[in-house]
Amino acid sequence: MPPQGDRPGPREGERTSSIAPRVFWPSAVVILGFVLFAVIGQKTAADAVATVQSEVIGNLSWFYMALVSLFVIFCLWVGIGRYGDIRLGKDGERPEFSVVSWLAMLFAAGMGIGLVFWGVAEPLNFFDAPRPGIGSSDAAKSEFAMVQTFLHWGIHPWAIYVVVGLAVAYSVHRKGRPVSIRWALEPVFGDRIKGVWGDVIDSVAVIGTLFGVATSLGFGVMQVASGMDFLGWVDDGGSKTLLVVLIVCITGVATLSVVTGIGKGIKWLSNANMGIAALIMLFVLIAGPTLYIANTLVQDTGGYLQNLLSLSFDTGAAHGEDGTSWVNAWTVFYWGWWISWAPFVGIFIARISRGRTVREFVCGVLLVPTLLTFVWFSIFGGTAVFQQATGKHDYVGEAGVSTNNALFEMLDTLPGGTFVAGVAILLIVLFFVTSSDSGSYVVDMLASGGDPNPPTWSRVFWALTEGAVAIALLLASGSGGTASLDTLKTVAILVALPFSFVMIGMCVATLRSFRQEREAYLAAKAKREQDRMVDEAVAALEEGLENGTLGAEGTSKTSTTKR
To answer: Per its UniProt entry, which superkingdom is the organism in (predicted)?
Structure first.
């Protein structure tokens, strides 16, 4: 790792003592401008964004399906292959965090809240309205519901995070660069990354991250309010006042957490999340259909592995417009959403992965969360699908499955489920806090020129900005509406298109850096071997001269020749 003095900095005048002006101010202006557009010109903004989304997802679904699958192949190749021993830090450096804390933080930041939100609802949605071509029997729909859910939450999204996280972690911890997206592309663009294009890349990452976290916060509090309404804690779960109060509370806790930093607030909350999630999961496993859960976990994991290749590249074309529309609405939408979150999650994972090898990084980020995800969905989603298929509980109303209430409905069917549902609300709030504080931390690092310990005032600024954006969009959407939030969510996903090309550049940059390091390692190894052989030869020569054996051998050979 280069010494601190060799670290290249931003251009002269680009960064003050606390922020990078060419990233901070353009990002803030764009965010403010678009939020005003979404609030004031709600219908116009929604129509414009929906049109663009339809064109992108409708015409480029093949691109997303192929690209994300290639990311999986790239990650497996890099992690398993000859580059796996490269350390993301100085040679011999130990990891900054324990394995448990590391996994808890990356899991909570990556998709912890999504698992709580969709753990029951997504398999039920797929069971109720499966992809065209799936059989009509409950058995066929049950297996499809779980396998398709595994696809959306398995190794594919985590491969997206690995691509960004690995490139950033190598540039930051191995090469000593600032914590920023732009520096991960230095092996491809060289010093040009210090200019305008680098500013644009970091600004896009800031905007996409803040939009994604703000919309998740807005939709998340709606689920919390829905759960409180379901449990009878409030009279009107759709009350704007209640939603605003929830956002203010979550943002306040997130602000305190991000101010204390990764080593304290974020780590403690992540560990608490994992503990509470494990207890709820254990409760559902024991109180629910335990044998069915065990059987469906094994069976559907096998189905996932058996069909992984075909599902990865399935665009739905074989079933006409209905098939492609279904895939676009779910799988392609998910791939765009995960890519839009990649700057945030990738940088955060990179920041906490100092000292790990490439193989540890890939296996830890790609495989461990995937296995935990399969267990989670098998327990929560498997229980709900079993109840729906056997008629023990009907989750499907006139408008389909209630995504916000599905988790609480399932818990309410179990003994003591009402109390556990209350604990689940706490879990949702804590997961949103960890998403908000880690998102604010990443945005702040980018807006501060890659400073791994950005100033406190800007941490507070971005944390409060996320909450303020979510509140403004909720209030602008009218009673019970989400129009402005939907618009911003769509924009966050549209950011995935340009950023997908940045990720392709990251793959090239990572391979180029790893190849250079491998060549340097082999050259150094060959030099050490050569030096060893020379040293051994010199030592043997010196020993021969000292013992007189070298001269004796020479005399013996001369006598033999004369004879």
So the answer is: Bacteria
